[in-house]
Amino acid sequence: MKDTTKHQGLRNQLANVLEAKGINDEKVLKAIRKIPRHLFMDSSFEAHAYQDKAFPIAAEQTISQPYTVAFQSQVLEVKPGDKVLEIGTGSGYQTAVLLELDAEVYSIERQHELFKKTSMFLPKLGYKPKRFIFGDGYKGLPEEAPFDKIIVTAGAPYVPKALLGQIKVGGRLLIPVGDKEQVMTLFIRKSPKEFEKHELGGFRFVPMLKKKN
Fold first, then answer.
1. Which phi and psi angles does 130 have, rounded to 5°?
2. Per-residue pLDDT reduced to its tens digit, 3-40
């Protein structure tokens, strides 16, 4: 669990790369500069931690490309105290970014191995979501709804109605939709029955899986 000045330098470089790619939210860039991404990966892959690319982690999942994490975080427009539901805890890196943005985070993971690992690991770094949930992300978290923001970090073949129903009026759902390739899709809830939809370009995610394994 070492974090050195060399790592800090690599994080600063990564933040500069993301800024050049269009990430301009200072709070998001500050989070990228602060969070020790190398600790979220197997130590043998540490050399890859601050490159702008996705990387395999446990349970056939990946730690998302830093640009994707920063892009999703920027589009969500997280404000301090926002109640945010994250579908797909994964390595916990996106969770840490949301917590650095002062969100109240509820995070669902359906891979038991990852759920156990990440829910023990994140608090060791000082990152404490409101709740870690082992469950099916397609269902959302009705008992804690409504949410200011919902972020999905896996590719969904369709938009789960349950998630749309759990956003506050004025809130945002950001979800990559599609099978092999996904279109990053933003829904802004304008009224109880009306949503504004924005398609924000192509991305590649691991698939969002139903049911717990």
1. -60, -45
2. 999 999 999 999 999 999 999 999 999 999 999 999 99
